[in-house]
Amino acid sequence: xxxxxxxxxxxxxxxxxxxxxxxxxxxxxxxxxxxxxxxxxxxxxxxxxxxxxxxxxxxxxxxxxxxxxxxxxxxxxxxxxxxxxxxxxxxxxxxxxxxxxxxxxxxxxxxxxxxxxxxxxxxxxxxxxxxxxxxxxxxxxxxxxxxxxxxxxxxxxxxxxxxxxxxxxxxxxxxxxxxxxxxxxxxxxxxxxxxxxxxxxxxxxxxxxxxxxxxxxxxxxx
Length: 222
Hints:
This protein is α/β, with parallel strands linked by helices. It has helices at 39-43, 60-63, 79-91, 102-111, 127-133, 166-169, 210-213, and strands spanning 4-9, 24-28, 49-54, 69-71, 97-100, 117-121, 137-138, 141-149, 172-177, 189-197, 200-208.
């Protein structure tokens, strides 16, 4: 069975509606104030996987490596702009990720632009149908994520981590491969702990979780 996870995305104006326990989120790094996510929006999810979306014409953040996914749809970037941006990312040794509908992905494939994987938008699917597409290919493009529920198409679907429906929260639901932009892995701090024992000073090498290490207070011995 495919190892998958839920991802929730929203415009910046609704980012606060995404439950804080969400394991993977996607937000916009370009757009107007109503679309763009600010620093506080991202900071609500310190332990989540994060996907940064560029939907601006010309894909300025995506081509510079400051966004992860190129959003190709009406009112956002075009296939031609994606092709140019992909070449610039190749020069920077970056991977290539594109969001779009079936027709968008067909156009990207026809343009023969570099694509590492894609995030398919198909709100006609059920969650199980969307999961079934993960890891498969469409027009040669590997599907790593599927957006299957929007407030307009699944208004009564309950948002994971909440008791409220999508129509109240104005968020979208996707399923993704678990390995696609995963949550950060905490690296413990290697240290040596010393204390005074009955036979003198005792030292032991150990590791401490970063969150615990950051809370420790140290004082210089006399």
